[in-house]
Amino acid sequence: VEASIPENQREAWRKHSAHGFENKDEFEKEAVRHIETTLARSLFNCDELAAYSGTALAFRDRLVIDWNRTQQRQTFADQKRVYYLSLEFLMGRTLDNAMLNVGLKDAAKDGLTDLGFRIEDIISQEHDAALGNGGLGRLAACFLDSMATLNYPAWGYGLRYRYGIFKQEIMDGYQVEIPDYWLDFNPWEFPRHDITVDIQFYGYVRKYQDDDGKSHAVWEGGEIVDAVAYDVPIPGYKTGTTNNLRLWSSKASRGEFDFQKFNSGEYESSVADQQRAETISAVLYPNDNLERGKELRLKQQSFWCSASIYDIVRRFKKSKRSWSEFTDQVAIQLNDTHPTLAIVELQRVLVDIEGLDWEDAWKIVTGTFSYTNHTVLPEALEKWSVPLIQNLLPRHLQIIYEINLQFLQMVERRFPQDREMLRRVSIIEESQPKMVRMAYLAIVGSHKVNGVAELHSDLIKTTIFKDFVTIYGPDKFTNVTNGVTPRRWLNQANPRLSEIIKAKLGGDEFLSDLNLLNQLENFVDDKAFRKEWAEIKYANKVRLAQFIMAQTGVSVNPKVMFDIQVKRIHEYKRQQLNIFGVIHRYLTIKNMTPEERKTYYPKVSIFGGKSAPGYWMAKNIIHLVNSVAQVVNNDKDVGNLLKVVFIEDYNVSKAEMLFPAADISQHISCAGMEASGTSQIKGVLNAGLLIGTCDGANIEVAREIGEDNIFLFGTLAEDVEDLRHAHSYSQHSIDGDLLKVFDAINSGIFGDRNSFSAIVSAVADHGDYYLVSDDFNSYIKTQALIDEAYKNQEDWITKCITSVARMGFFTSDRCIQEYAESIWNIEPLPPASKA
Ligand code: GLG
Hints:
47% of the residues are buried. This protein has 34 helices and 24 strands. Bound molecules: alpha-D-glucopyranosyl-2-carboxylic acid amide.
């Protein structure tokens, strides 16, 4: 029952309705009130953490007022909404973004100064919300920001992990994982204990016929776990729209707490049951681009999908529309295959619970869903074993079989001669045990499938999903090239750069219309502007140099080139190629006379990124980087010519510090393997140049900014297969420079060569799957070009300014516009004053 205050009692509400602060004085009042009453502190014991908490609570009040209004407006307007289902939302910090988006950062800054604090110190108190592994989760976070900014009625749905991605510590050069318990103080979420959904697992399916002879299925028995909603407000930039991110947390069922057990003295086991339920949302699986088929992971997926579908259907039913209007009201985007069970769950709800015919229900389902593919790596394509699903979700398995049957019958009608095709495209893989191919299920259950960069979207059509293009035709498959939000990745990460752009462009409209950046090209010869541009990069490097000194004790000179590769550690991303290049540089320096060294190019080589805890080779690469750093940084012959740094615990807020300090960043994946990548966009937007392969979005970045402004090298995707094939035949010849690198590693100068031998022999003896040897030579040559180019600082700055000016395409606002128009078919709903 909806509770609502009768009209004649609303006067008091209207009079006292909260409106939040609007200026510095009001901010101070709110912050102090929270510090004194919510936190029970005073001016005698208010440290920076307390000041952060008070500030965050004051802003939270602001957000929640906008949030309430937005939700009301969207409910009244009753137009189509989009639901973005993602197992990962890599949000990072919230306060700074909230300040910018509601337009009160200056008020907070001045207010904090009055109260005795520096805004930067307060902002840096916040713990990252790290509910994601890497690009996929960060993309979801950028999309939330853009959807709110563009006033789309949009909700995110995810899991509220108690532990986000682990914190990485480097001990003796090795990665060690520390749990990230981030919920000690999280002002940005609202528990909604009133919104709790029963989620069923296990049990059995009972079939029966009704009086009309129609057969039905009911899922019975098993266990129930509660899904409790936690809402996170997502403010748009310069708009009243504040959308909702709903994260589900698992709890033992209210009905389930076993009083019988409890009374019969089995207190412990009854508490244990409770903990088992809470385990479902306890931890984010720390794998990027790898799926491992664990039952708990399947439980997470089904728990979250069921809760979200229940919530979406409930909201739809409140509108009292007929089911045929469902697709006019609801679009659901699947971020990768992780939420594919939502397709099955919606079909189950419509058929088993709402009593629709199979065909009518299936039309609704396929009209509702669309699916984004983020990878072609076989080890990342999800498959779930049939026995596992059978046990956990018996009714869902039946539905999957029925979907597959109908799909295969359709294929057979259209391609009657082709038995092989049926085997290839079947949602069920006939292996031991049988497996459900989730990507195929996602394609069959969706009306659109998209890749995340042009090359990638072409590749999925010609490789992994080729047959489905034959079956459905090419129009079902489309491309939306990734982007990032300029609010975080330009304004927040690089406030000074943002400031001078604003001064030149005469306003900050570029933050919501990134194409306006192209006006910067008019100022490329403006001396004062160029000087300031260079000073900003230098200041950002000084800040990073101080951070490196504090964290690692290594002294780096901010006047020399900073070369940065930060991202998950993965063989396909080829940090091994980078470190081989560094070793090659080290050997080159060692072989020089002191005279020659005087004119050589100095450089700081910076690495950062986490490895999946079970990814032995990636951990080995981290160890090699740290071991090389140890040797190089302490070699008197080398001095300032080369420093190697590994940044511990790379995360969103470190990225915000690193990209503004990069002269060059590396995006050197084996061609065809990085679906898009998004960090190259962050690199260029922050006035750094790129070295990259012809892979993912690098290709489109090159097209936009011009090939003169990017350092591309290496094998093309179309040649990868032939090269791999050639490796497996002949003992492939390895570049002489690379052999010297291998000799150096094998000689033990970087320590225990046994532990590094696997990195070398993956290239030298085991087929070199990632084509490191093929690309090494052109990589080294390209690095030499970069050294030369960097000497000419005037040209370099021209390249940087020109590149930033041409990055407009890569805003996530453009992505969301494309999704909204060509996939979701939804309209924005701006607040009245902005309409
Ligand atoms: C994937 C891909 C990246 C891509 C990101 C966002 O590996 O290339 O940029 O999603 O689409 N698993 C990922 O991080």
